[in-house]
Amino acid sequence: MVLRLISVVILAVIVARVCNFVYVSGFHKPIYKQYPGPCRLVPGVDRGSEDITVSSEGLAFISSGLSSPRFVHDPQRHAEGVKGRILLFDYSHPEKNTTELSIVGNFSNNHFDPHGISLYQNPVTGETRLFVVNHLPDFKDSVEIFRFMEKEKSLYHLKTCQGEHMYSLNDVLAVGPESFYFTNDMFFTQGILRILELYAGMAWGGVGLYDVTDKILLQGMMFANGINMSPDGRLVYVAEFVRNTVNIYKRVPEDNSLIIQKVIYTYTSVDNIEVDKKTGDIWLGCHPALYTTIKHMENTTKPAASQVLRLRLSSNSDPYDKAELRQFFMDGGELISASSVASMYNDAMLIGSVTDRMVYCEIKTI
Ligand SMILES: [Ca+2]
Ligand SMILES: [Ca+2]
């Protein structure tokens, strides 16, 4: 009797997990084409623009060439030997498209597989630093810190940060010249155990902090993905990709700890998060039909659905008691596949993709 009861409970848990993953995969989701205004491809970007972040002056930094077999399973793409690059796009001169930033200093370009990025603009010195998640061989990860040299159009390598708690990095959020939050999307880094962790819906991802040494701050997340913060630094936003949520945390300035305030259900798989520094609006690059993204990662010539949402928090009394979600972009992969990020500056937007192209849109519908 007891054995039978245990078997029923185990079966029920497995069925619930399978049903949840089928739901999250988005087979039932219709994809209606929607553009916020005129949109065009940006020439020179055809091997990914996984993360984009923009400076106060409207310079967008783009990470291109993500190839880690942890995410990209397309043998053709691996055979091509895609090169990791950081590109620059000036919102004041969109007609100039992108420029590749050269990397100088003591850093080997042979092991550059860039993923999530974040900027730190020092309010005292005016220095701009770019923090880049880098996937190294043998499934090891690091965060590379560069100084941006605007005149030379280059990145000067300053430091490689690694730690025992930085094992499955996805995104980074700079909070000081050498300190940052990071997300570990999952616990396992490779192979069948990572696949099982994903499909069984295990909540083993989380958020950590690097400040001289590294430590874990938050656990229990289902694929922790993008991380960013409000312009005043009081709130931190984290995307739980498989749970379909954006979590809002209060940041304690004394020790950088994070206290959960609200969970926003998005009903789509949110990848990276960008924040408009002027308005505080939160821009989400999303995978609305996740099964198409999974197929696209196995064969990058197959189209995958793309979506951009804006999350606006507002209230007279409390900055997070009202949340409005609005869609600005949706595409079945005709223009761009597997959108992972949307960056906004004035009335224009760049949409990036894990392995595909990059799109520039003028916003006419706000
Ligand atoms: Ca980022
Ligand atoms: Ca990401």
TrEMBL record:
UniProt cross-references to InterPro entries, sorted A to Z: 6-blade_b-propeller_TolB-like (IPR011042), Arylesterase (IPR002640), Serum_paraoxonase/arylesterase (IPR051288)
E.C. code: 3.1.1.2
Metal-binding listed as a keyword: yes
Cofactor note: Binds 2 calcium ions per subunit.
Catalytic activity: a phenyl acetate + H2O = a phenol + acetate + H(+)
Cofactor(s) of this protein: Ca(2+)
Assigned keywords, A-Z: Calcium, Disulfide bond, Glycoprotein, Hydrolase, Metal-binding
SUPFAM superfamilies: Calcium-dependent phosphotriesterase (SSF63829)
Pfam families, sorted: Arylesterase (PF01731)
Family named by the database record: Belongs to the paraoxonase family.
Protein name (record): Paraoxonase
Organism of origin: Saccoglossus kowalevskii (Acorn worm)
Originating gene: LOC100378655
